[in-house]
Write a structure and sequence with these properties.
Distance between the termini: 17 Å
Number of helices: 1
Helix content: 10-25%
Strand order of the largest sheet: 1-2-3
Largest sheet: 3 strands, antiparallel
Shape: globular
Low-confidence stretches: none
Order of helices and strands: EEHE
Number of strands: 3
Length: 53
């Protein structure tokens, strides 16, 4: 998983097999914050860039 951070927005290369909720949970755990939002849901079988703030 590759992560880029700019102005409070994370751009994450989501791997195949992870759900968007699993990605939100990982960001919450890693950054130790409660509120995390994302710009759109990727299918669990798709890989690609996923943005979060």
């Amino acid at each position: 998983m590759t992560v880029a951070i700019a102005a409070g927005v994370l751009l994450i290369d989501k791997p195949v097999g992870k759900t968007s909720f699993a990605m939100v949970r990982a960001v919450r755990d890693i950054l130790n914050i409660k509120k995390v939002g994302h710009a759109g849901t990727l299918d669990p079988f798709a890989s690609g860039y996923w943005s979060s703030a």
